[in-house]
Amino acid sequence: MGDVKLFWTWSSPYAQRIVWALKLKGVEYEIMYEDLTNKSSLLFKYNPIHKQVPVLVHNGTPICESLVILEYIDETWKTGAPLLPEDPLARAKARFWAKFNDEQVLPSLKHAYLSHGLEQEKAKGHALNNLDVVEKQLTGKKFFSGETIGFLDIVFGWIAIYLEILEETSGMEPLDKERFPFISAWKENFSDNTFFKEDRPDKEKLITMYKGVREYFRCTAAAK
Amino acid sequence: MGDVKLFWTWSSPYAQRIVWALKLKGVEYEIMYEDLTNKSSLLFKYNPIHKQVPVLVHNGTPICESLVILEYIDETWKTGAPLLPEDPLARAKARFWAKFNDEQVLPSLKHAYLSHGLEQEKAKGHALNNLDVVEKQLTGKKFFSGETIGFLDIVFGWIAIYLEILEETSGMEPLDKERFPFISAWKENFSDNTFFKEDRPDKEKLITMYKGVREYFRCTAAAK
């Protein structure tokens, strides 16, 4: 398997994806913990463009961007179940929805969490509309591609951890189980796995951090 | 090869990519011309999320997002040379730089083209810094992956058409051949191909359109 190092931090939903994928593939790896307020010179060396986690370093060569890393893991280690399906059309669909998550769903929830008042109301509406689209993709299914966990479950996996953190720290209502029955059930199904439970970041610690970030953004906006 | 339709418009750099890829693979296709000021109901049906070109419809099933379509084409038609390399590490690098183009290089040039005065000066500096990164990737090479055209040449191919259009319509200086010798040479190498020449959009028509778009954005910004 070679030497596998993961530059990671405990609070990053993007870094968390890589831990899940490596565990599903049974790949042994070493965690290189990054303090995002004081990044290491190695992180700057391995990811000079974005200077962000996650970075997977395989036998000394860095791979950056979480979606790119997920495909690399899937193509490199054939242990465990494949993350992406084999059929080109199913692969294209998975890549399309992964992009939709990273460019639309996750940013819209982040905006709703960081905003206030009327702006937050509008942002919440937009975020919930995006979740409606996700709900439609999950309708009638246990996981995104059917009965087993795959690429899209890992990509959307942040929902199972961070959605309630965003809700609790910004006064958004909890996910409505009547409007989102399949996302609600999927959250349970996804969370009920050893790889997920083993590495779940501490809820109270996340709440403390996310409250702080929201407060910081409110003060920064007020100072402008 | 089945029935292949491409929802396309003459002025879109993203749609142009798909034409190049299909030609390189020798895939026969039918162009479904979209007037972006009056989109067809079929486009809304096939791309309900983004309502944009390009959409590739293969045997009645739509595939959206140009990078996703490129990978679909590469995985579906094994005619012609592969677009992506075989090695997982080389594939990861190609995907990383494609994302960098779509999220950084292209948007930064677009911003420089649409802005004015001091804001444009700042935006130009940012765009040129991004092109420095691209120059470094091309250094010592004819094409992005070496001697033959591949995935990244198609992704960055817009530079060979649109860079001079953006420059001419917004008063930016032409690409400095001393600062960007390899991008300059690559532009010539990429343009010197039948698939490129056959489908090159009319320069005067592009200039007319891009001047109009810049003027529209200036008026909209002034009215705010």
TrEMBL record, chains A, B:
Signal peptide span: none
Q: Does the keyword Transferase apply?
A: yes
Q: Which residues form the GST C-terminal domain?
A: 87-210
Q: Pfam families recorded for this chain? A: GST_C, GST_N
Q: Name one GO biological process term.
A: glutathione metabolic process
**Among its keywords, does the record have GTP-binding?**
no
CDD domains reported in the protein's UniProt record: GST_C_Tau, GST_N_Tau
Q: Which reaction does it catalyse?
A: RX + glutathione = an S-substituted glutathione + a halide anion + H(+)
SUPFAM superfamilies, alphabetized: GST C-terminal domain-like, Thioredoxin-like
Q: Which InterPro entries does UniProt cross-reference here?
A: Glutathione-S-Trfase_C-like, Glutathione-S-Trfase_C_sf, Glutathione_S-Trfase, Glutathione_S-Trfase_N, GST_C, GST_C_Tau, Omega/Tau-like, Thioredoxin-like_sf
Q: What is its EC number?
A: 2.5.1.18
GO MF annotations in UniProt? glutathione transferase activity
- Domain GST N-terminal positions: 2-81
Annotated Gene Ontology cellular components are: cytoplasm
Classification via PROSITE patterns:
GST_CTER, GST_NTER
Instruction: Give the keywords, sorted.
Output: Transferase
What is stated as this protein's family in its record?
A: Belongs to the GST superfamily. HSP26 family.
Q: What is this protein called?
A: Probable glutathione S-transferase
Protein's organism: Artemisia annua
